[in-house]
Amino acid sequence: MKVLFLTHSFPRAHGDAPGSFVLRLAEALRAEGADVHVVAPGALGLASEESFDGVPVERFRYAPRRYETLAYTGTMAEEVRASLTAKIALIGFLGSEFRTAVRAARRMEPDLVHAHWWFPGGLVGSWVNGLARVPLVTTLHGTDIRLARSVGVARALFRSVVSRSATVTAVSRWLAGEARSLARGVDPVVAPMPVADELFTPGGERSTDQLLFVGRLNRQKGIELLLRALAIAQSAPLLDVVGAGPDEEDLRRLTAELGLTDRVSWHGTQSQPRLADFYRRAAALVVPSVDEGLGLVAVEGLLCEAPVIAFASGGLTDTVRHEVTGLLVPPGDVPALAAAIDDLLRRPDRGAALGRAGRLHALATFAPSSVARRYMEIYQSALASRAA
Length: 388
Prior knowledge:
The chain has two domains: 2-194 and 367-387, 3-Layer(aba) Sandwich (Rossmann fold), CATH 3.40.50.2000; 210-365, Glycogen Phosphorylase B (Rossmann fold). The strands form two sheets. The protein has an eight-stranded mixed β-sheet with strand order 3-4-2-1-5-6-7-8, sandwiched between helices. A six-stranded parallel β-sheet has the order 11-10-9-12-13-14, with helices on both faces. The chain is an alpha/beta fold. The chain has 15 helices and 14 strands. The model has no long low-confidence stretch (mean pLDDT 93). Strand 13, helix 12 and strand 14 form a beta-alpha-beta unit. The chain is globular and about 60 Å long. The protein is 46% helix and 16% strand.
């Protein structure tokens, strides 16, 4: 089976975090007998064609280099909303991705197209579907659903894309429910993305009081709420912050205002191997985000047996099961988050049993081999529906 992947997020080098699960799925599918070709955007310093562990990747140019800022930053929607230049670049992005996808499709003659995120990949995939007459599988990851929910024209485009898709998948039950509420008749198959179980493993000595946050430094990821919880937690824990984002300056200022400067360490974005070391060392991983599509950070932490404390929101409830694989508190409840931190750090085992159970759950659900077999079944079903 030959599969053409369309994605706006894909690793730029080995160990790069953006879109790493897309590469991991492609690699796992190869082990199941699928031939995957990836179309992804270019960026400064990237070759137009390369191969990642046998997976061919074709990258497209969409603007002069100084304006090619839409991909790999996690801020595409914000940039397009705020800048005319970014809006123009987006038009170039869609056109270039379509041309590159059509060229790749003519060359490899795929059995189907798999678009990651309904926008922009799914939209482009629907055009390729109309031209090449091959089934389209569209996977919803979370940020794309927030786009469809918040922008009027995006909702209409979303409905068009899912109606043109032979199969729609979502990486969590919550995300599937959100899609159903936005488009009548769509019933996504819940199929999460794979996580690097060979990289994220337990080991080493775990801290007794060092919490960990990993993610974009913005409002949706909830780090402001975590800082406020840290300020009132009786156990006075420390915090490692891994990530970057538009709110970093404001968050550092808030840290000083809360008197936490000596207890919070800022580490910026880290490679995945380095990130695994943070997970192994943390007393607990705290995931205070709201409406998370899945929460792969939580999965990575559990694979390293880090106890996870999270808001009971979005797809996180698929991964973190209260008092089984971690602790869940009501979304946005700062005092409850502080109390959960205190509770875990005061336990005799400091949540070690939760971490062990979490790793077993994560291996059963997110191991690349298991996920790849699930997607092969989805592909076969899409092809069978087309034949019928």
